[in-house]
Amino acid sequence: MKLPSSSATDLHKKNMRHMISMKDFTTQEMDDMMALMALLKQARKDNAIPPLFKNKSVGMIFEAGSTRTRVSFEVAATLLGGHGLFLSPRDIHLGAKESIDDTARVLSRMCDIVMARTNDPDTVDALCRMSTVPVINGLDTRFHPTQMLADLFTIKEHMPEGKKLSDLTLAFMGDATDVCRSLLLTCTKYGMNFKQIGPKKYHMEEEWLKMADEFCKETGANYEITEDLSAIESCDVVYGDSFYWVTQLDEKEERLKAFMPDYVITEALMQRAKPGAMLLHCLPANDKEEVTREALEGNYSVAFDEAENRLTAQMAILVYFTHKYTKKPDEALIKHHETEINNFLEKL
Q1: Is residue 347 situated within a structural domain?
Q2: Is 181 a catalytic residue?
Q3: Has 241 been annotated as catalytic?
Q4: Do both 176 and 247 map to the same domain?
Q5: Which one of 66, 69, 207, 284 has the minimum C-beta count within 10 Å?
Q6: Which of 18, 117, 181, 281 is catalytic?
Q7: Between 174 and 4, the higher pLDDT residue
């Protein structure tokens, strides 16, 4: 007896979208996601989150380690009535004994959404090609869209009354990381001005600036890539990130020498930004390297609100990308299957 797939998720849905970069979404779509975040955050505060991910699962592929991404997705799935599966290289055969294509096809039959945090962008792209459920990029070497959604929401929560995101200027202190690239594209697409401040050797690559140029033409935003610390004086948001990552440990000393002490976010540096400027940091933070503990704990710092909003973002993402494709049975249909199965079991 051959039966079709029993997945409750439509495996042949039209217009299915993945989340690889925030640049692929309109500002209206980003606004919709943030509006959903606000509703879900209030529901969590009221301890009254509706089970919008009930009986659903998110397969979470982790080639790279994580605190916030793993915890936020797993907790988000649980709070919404579903389940998160942690899949490390030790747990699955991704690209080794099993092709990425086949992994994507199998996970699509068993999960309702797939999240992947990878060391190679080709892995995310390959999952998208073959997956019949939405794929969420949990970070690759190009983009970090889930962080961007949390960042935009956090800025909106704390920006001055009467201001819009497009009124603001954000300064990123440091290297052209995946977070820096994502901020450049997300800000300029949203109409926010963006600055990268750091040593010339670590400035943004030309290919990313060309993408930002197109967004600036559409929105009127502008960007500046500079070594000049005085550029911070016109900024409403100051953003920190590590000066090196786990794949750059052989460059650690060289990088720290290039960035320290000039580009470390200190209380004195924050005082040079616009009055009321806020400090964001995607974490983990290396105290006294890219940011001092005094700055991170300052009353202008919203870094830990930002971290909490990773959970808010993941709840919204799980709902936003699956709600259209779920079969919603009525009570009669559930009762029918319960009766059929119980009648069978009684005969065993």
Answers
A1: no
A2: no
A3: yes
A4: yes
A5: 207
A6: 117
A7: 174
Query: Residue 18 catalytic?
Result: no
Domain that holds residue 29: 22-144+310-323
- Of the candidates 68, 70, 281, 310, the residue annotated as catalytic is 310
pTM for the whole thing? 0.94
261 pLDDT band (50/70/90 cuts)?
Answer: very high
**Lowest-pLDDT range, 130-134, 251-255, 328-332?**
328-332
* 341 in a structural domain: no
Q: Is residue 117 annotated as part of the catalytic site, yes or no?
A: yes
Q: Are residues 238 and 251 in the same domain?
A: yes
Average pLDDT, the chain: 93
Q: Which of 241, 255, 281, 314 is catalytic?
A: 241
Question: Does residue 147 have an active-site annotation?
Answer: yes
Other Cβ atoms closer than 10 A to 148: 24
4: confidence class by pLDDT, cuts 50, 70, 90: low
Catalytic (active site) residue 323: no
Tokens read off for 261? 């002490």
In SS3 terms, 33-67 reads as: HHHHHHHHHHHHHCCCCCCCCCCCEEEEEECCCCC
Instruction: Please compute the mean of the pLDDT values over residues 56-73 and round it to a whole number.
Output: 94
**Is 72 within a domain?**
yes
For the chain, the domain total comes to 2
Determine the average pLDDT of the residues in 62-89. Answer: 94
Residue 210: per-residue pLDDT: 97
Which is the catalytic residue, given 147, 180, 216, 236? 147
Q: Residue ranges of the alpha helices (H) in the chain? A: 27-45, 68-79, 100-110, 121-130, 145-158, 178-190, 206-219, 252-259, 267-272, 293-296, 303-320, 331-346
Q: Which of 18, 68, 70, 144 is catalytic?
A: 144
